[in-house]
Amino acid sequence: AIERTLSILKPDATRRNLTGKINAVFEAAGLRIVAQKRIKLTEDQAKAFYAVHAERPFYGSLVGSMITEPVVVQVLQGENAILKNREVMGATNPAQAAEGTIRKLFAESIEANSVHGSDSAENARSEIAFFFAETEILP
Ligand code: CMP
């Protein structure tokens, strides 16, 4: 089925001017960027977006890292977009990411891992709504 997923190009990626290179990987995989904006997350936004990880030891550091530089938030659309995006991102830890994946190619560390992508249909819906009005998504 045609799905939508929420993607974030993280500060480590925007800082190194990798927006175009990462978008090229998405597009080559058949994912269409149907909404996109470059924003600076506030601390409250980063905390709320990652609230599911609030009890994890890395939460404070993760929130801090997400507000150092702008991020690019985007909606990717395509056949099986949620799983396809997770495949092209590769494993969370770049040391375990497969050859050719975004995290293998570009990530600096498990925290500065260049990209975020929704991990389920339910989370995709809520994460897209966190950043985008329906009128901003133009398939
Ligand atoms: P992301 O897919 O955005 O989801 C949670 C983020 O927490 C993850 O990518 C990493 O950036 C960060 N993180 C830092 N340490 C860990 C860890 N040990 N396990 C999982 N995620 C981590």
UniProtKB/TrEMBL annotation:
Listed PROSITE patterns: NDPK_LIKE
Cofactor section: Mg(2+)
Example of a GO MF term: metal ion binding
Record bears the keyword Cytoplasm: yes
Subcellular location: Cytoplasm
UniProt keyword list: ATP-binding, Cytoplasm, Kinase, Magnesium, Metal-binding, Nucleotide metabolism, Nucleotide-binding, Phosphoprotein, Transferase
Main location: cytoplasm
Family, as annotated: Belongs to the NDK family.
Record protein name field: Nucleoside diphosphate kinase
Upper classification of the organism: Bacteria, Pseudomonadati, Pseudomonadota, Alphaproteobacteria, Acetobacterales
Gene: ndk
